Task: structure prediction
Amino acid sequence: MERILPLLTAFLPVLYALSAAAYARIYAREETTGTRLGPMFLRLAAVVHLAYLAARGVLEGHLPLATVYDFLSATGLSMAAVYIYVEHKERTPNTGLFVVPIIFLTQMVSTAYGLLPSGHKVPIKPIWFELHTLTAVISYSAFCVSAVYGILYLALYREIKSNRFSLFFRRMPPLETLAQMTIRAAGGGLAALTLAIALGLGWLQRTGQNAAGDPKIWLTVGVWFIFAFAVLAYHRMGWRGPRAIYVCLVGFSTLLVSRVVLDLFLHTFHQFR
Result:
């Protein structure tokens, strides 16, 4: 099994590249055969990816989330799962060209650098911490997919407002469908982030660690409120048009900026090394 794992991780970018190429064909030609090949390759890549991470978890005795490159690989799989779910619900594969290449690049970086010897053994974390990290990865991935859909929504919205009807207009689903895809992905990320926060608090309670001053916790709660407001505004307050989309993009931008600021300037025990 240990000999097969490097082959699997090297094979994953190939599968995601084939998926991206098939989705590009869907976008360029809108052929019936392409609409089947794209989802088929992506589902195959996700299944192989899941088997690879599961095999590593069994061999290593813990979830494969110990390094930055493990985190990237898990993020790629989570993005693939979120996209497959939303695509299945909305039945529109034309947006795959804008999501699947991101998954490919994420796994490519993980494969290229994650196979290098680390030089030290990563300490095994308690299962509470591992589950907390896993749900956080899923939430970040869902927010990323939501942001892609949000950008596509705004691009299509501006094209319609300016009365320009290009290939992009012809290939994209209706505005309301893109809005639903944005909010659906954001809602999934919000649910996963809620679970991540609950698991994190449970882990802190068990360890007796005082993290009230950790900026990562407060920034995460802030991101949770932004996305919660976006989902609530769309479903309960009648926010249609770009308003709820802008809120989702603000939430994702806050998440990205907070990660950069935390890693570079502030002290937090949420670190990958």
